[in-house]
């Protein structure tokens, strides 16, 4: 069962994540070593947070001690894994009924602090968190003279039309 606006938010996240990964796969060699590492750290952070909250939604332990990987992944496997997790979120959100988004989820932050969010709040968090950090990545790309991917909801709607 599809539930707007969550399904649309996740669709936009999938589209924007894919766009950033596509630009990076084409332009990664134009980044210097430090900027390439920074870009991988940004993508890894987005992805690890997505995975942490994926596990919270599933009621499963995630095994992360921090909102980043222990070792910095390479771009291609990271982009592939991001796509897989994005697809999981799309399928997950589309499977929920409207009332499921109000269901509470109790979990621990990586700091060990207890937390409580509704399923809809978690979905909103991963969407907004990713948008914020894609903006960071876009700024780095612009500073290097690289045009970032389109990332705005209006761009998504225009492209989908």
UniProtKB/TrEMBL annotation:
The keyword Metal-binding applies. It comes from the Bacteria. It holds the Pfam family DinB. Keywords: Metal-binding. Gene3D superfamilies: dinb family like domain. The keyword Plastid does not apply. Belongs to the DinB family. This is Damage-inducible protein DinB. It comes from Paraburkholderia edwinii. The lineage of its organism: Bacteria, Pseudomonadati, Pseudomonadota, Betaproteobacteria, Burkholderiales.
């Amino acid at each position: 069962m599809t539930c707007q606006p969550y399904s649309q938010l996740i669709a936009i996240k999938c589209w924007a994540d894919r766009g950033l990964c596509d630009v990076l796969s084409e332009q990664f060699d134009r980044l210097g070593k430090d900027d390439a590492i920074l870009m991988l750290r940004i993508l890894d952070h987005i992805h690890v947070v997505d995975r942490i909250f994926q596990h919270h939604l599933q009621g499963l332990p995630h095994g992360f001690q921090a909102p980043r990987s222990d070792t910095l992944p390479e771009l291609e496997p990271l982009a592939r894994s991001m796509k897989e997790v994005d697809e999981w979120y799309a399928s997950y959100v589309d499977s929920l009924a409207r009332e499921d988004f109000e269901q509470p989820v109790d979990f621990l932050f990586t700091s060990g602090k207890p937390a409580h969010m509704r399923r809809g709040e978690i979905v909103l968090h991963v969407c907004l968190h990713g948008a914020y950090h894609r903006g960071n990545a876009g700024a780095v790309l612009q500073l290097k003279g690289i045009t970032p991917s389109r990332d705005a909801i209006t761009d998504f709607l225009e492209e989908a039309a």
